[in-house]
Amino acid sequence: MLIIGSHLSSSKGFLHMRKEAVRIGANTFQFFTRNPRGSKAKKLDENDVKAFLEFARKGQIPVVLAHAPYTLNPCSKEEKTREFARLTLEDDLRRMEYLPGNLYNFHPGSHTGQGVEKGILLITELLNEIMWPGQQTTVLLETMAGKGTEVGGRFEELRRILDGVRLPEKMGVCLDTCHVYDAGYDIVHHLDEVLEEFDRIIGLEKLKAVHINDSKNPFGSHKDRHEKIGEGSIGLEAFARIVSHPALCHLPFYLETPNELEGYAKEIALLRKFG
User: Fold this and answer.
1) How far apart are CA 103 and CA 30, in angstroms?
2) Rounded to whole angstroms, how far apart are CA atoms 134 and 170?
3) Which of 4, 118, 206, 264 has the lowest CB atom count within 10 Å?
4) Is 189 annotated in the active site?
């Protein structure tokens, strides 16, 4: 069974997201923990969370993925920016304990001219500060397109972060198809080879989720602009291979394409034909 969903607005709560997911034919979903361009988080409604968990236990939503806001930069050269990232990530992980056993994804950040080595050091130091042995959430590093001073555009950079954390068993990776294609990993013509490289460097056991997005830009552009499935430079044939690939087909897939709900419903139905 293909586990696939889209990004949904969390403003009306988990039960509302569940209803929207079911309506568009999804059996998982992704949500922002707070305003993606801001800092404030909505107060949790514990009754809403409990009702959602009861629904999820029935197996209709086996896993959900929370996404940190885009404003976070754990490896900025500015101390106040790093402190904002620390406080937000720490708060998000505490809130995620209300949804035990699920996933939390964040962009590793941009080293802002300090160099990749320093960026990786700052990210691992922050993760070691905020994570704890008993946490029930798996934290995912997202593969990035490598634009500007982004950390995470190469598999080796993510591996070094994982090597630096004290609780690697609480960590994983979310592979974004647009990002890796823009970063120079040819998932269109050489999907098997890219996955073999991922396995050699990081380990496929660390791959926990996939952001499934087409790209507005050509291969290796380092641009990071998502496109609707089959309408970009990756193309529909490649996505048919991705969702049915034996190394990926058991993972949850999350659409982040430039769509509204009805567009997501069409993409989910389209991808289900291949999965």
Assistant:
1) 9
2) 9
3) 118
4) no
Catalytic member of 82, 111, 160, 226:
226
Considering the candidates 7, 107, 154, 160, report the single residue annotated as catalytic. Answer: 107
Phi/psi of residue 124, nearest 5 degrees: -65, -35
211 is annotated as an active-site residue: yes
Q: Give residue-wise pLDDT tens across range 164-198.
A: 999 999 999 999 999 999 999 999 999 999 999 99
- pTM > 0.90: yes or no: yes
- pLDDT tens readout for residues 11-69: 899 999 999 999 999 999 999 998 777 667 888 899 999 999 988 888 789 999 999 99
Summarize pLDDT for 154-164 with one digit per residue, the tens.
Answer: 999 999 999 99
The span from the CA of 234 to the CA of 25, in Å, is 24
Q: Is 167 helix (H, G, I), strand (E, B) or coil?
A: coil
Token pair listed for 11: 């403003």
In the residue annotation, 176 being an active-site residue is answered as yes
What number of CA atoms fall less than 13 Å from residue 260's CA on the CB side? 1
Task: Give which of 71, 75, 68 is closest to 124, Cα–Cα.
Answer: 75
Q: Is 182 within 8 Å of 224 (Cβ atoms)? A: yes
Is residue 236 pLDDT above 90, yes or no?
yes
Active site residue 222: no
Three-state DSSP class for 180? Answer: helix
